[in-house]
Amino acid sequence: MSKIRVAVIFGGKSNEHDVSVVSATHVIKSIPKDKYDVICIGITKKGHWMKYIGDVDDIASNKWEQHPDNVPCVLSPDPLHKGFIALGENGEYQNVKVDVIFPVLHGKNGEDGTIQGLFQLAEIPFVGCDCISSANCMDKGLTHTVLDANGIKTAKWVGIITSELSHLDKKCDEMEGKLGYPMFVKPANCGSSVGVSKAKNRDELKSAIKLAFAHDSKVIVEETIVGMECECAVMGNDEPFASTVGEVCSANDEFYDFDAKYNDAASKTLIPARMSEESIEEIRKTAVKAYRAMGCSGLSRVDFFLMKDGTVILNEINTLPGHTPISMYPQLMQYEGMTPAQQEDKLIKLALDKAEVDYE
């Protein structure tokens, strides 16, 4: 039986581009080569798509962009093509067909439903959540709204859009009355804590809001939750499985920001988290409930706070969590007995199952 052709897409215009290429390197190396042929598709920071055939180790360092054999390509939305159109010289082109797509893209355009919509137009199976669930999980305001409606506890919050900046003091009054200081200010549609600030007074609040608007046209402001930061990995379609809980030990005393996640060696994770079995089970149960409420499939990492009184507060859902060697999602699944190769194999099979493709 011929191997399944998997296109791994990485990079992108997102501010998480440099994390994506490290994640992709891990994923590509982990995909079982006895079952799958891997085709590498890189997207530069300027948004150019390239079919890459060079050394996998050059992806993480972004050296892949300079490879002389890179071929410009596009993903065709026409289901007849079942893949990519590689654009050669003199107007020549090649149809590069694939069986399934594994997007290793974090943040805007990769995790917000944008590219998932293209996959759905092309009618190609793909790893992870669909267009709508990706968009709803990426937008922190919509996530709050859906989870609140399903009885899942989240932080108190207030949303603000660009047009409301003209009466910012009035919005600050609302935030102070509902949330109190300190507050966390976040772009609604950015991942990995990009553009997130902690505000302890009105001047800091205004500055934080303006900073967040540099990353998005919609911002949410949340009350501060004091508790253990912890994360749970979920995998599956109709019958999702939740891993044990991992504890985040950030090197940043203020919050687990982008630099603490990816650049500070003092930040670490503990698996399982230092909490009771009852708390672990409650978090696992809540993670699955949220996963289903948001319409997730394939995989997601669900982030929580565990307060001192035992209350579980859901922070956010990441539909394409990091797959770097230090990322929590693959570590949690490895703790559950799944090797990296088994994880990627399962995720690809879940994508094919969702599309009702017979791969046996």
Which structural class best describes the helix and strand composition? Answer: alpha+beta
As a whole number of angstroms, the C-alpha radius of gyration is 21 Å
**What overall geometry do the principal axes of the alpha carbons give?**
globular
Element string (H = helix, E = strand): EHEEHEEEEHHHEHEEHEEEHEHEEHH
* First-to-last CA distance: 9 Å
For the sheet with most strands, the description reads: 7 strands, mixed
**Average residue-wise pLDDT:** 94
The helical percent reads 25-40%
Beta-strand percentage? 25-35%
What is the count of β-strands? 16
Helical segment count: 11
Low-confidence stretches: none
| Biggest sheet: strand arrangement | 6-5-4-3-2-1-7
What do these coordinates show?
The chain has a seven-stranded mixed sheet with strand order 6-5-4-3-2-1-7. The mean pLDDT is 94. The longest helix is centred in the last third of the chain and has 17 residues, at 277-293. The protein has helices at 17-30, 57-60, 114-122, 131-138, 140-149, 168-178, 202-213, 258-262, 277-293, 328-335, 340-354, and strands at residues 4-11, 36-43, 49-52, 71-75, 83-87, 93-97, 100-104, 157-161, 183-187, 197-199, 218-223, 228-236, 241-249, 268-270, 298-306, 312-318. 31% of the residues lie in helices and 27% in strands. The chain is built from eleven helices and 16 strands. It is α+β, with helices and mostly antiparallel strands. Strand 2 (36-43) and strand 3 (49-52) form a beta hairpin.
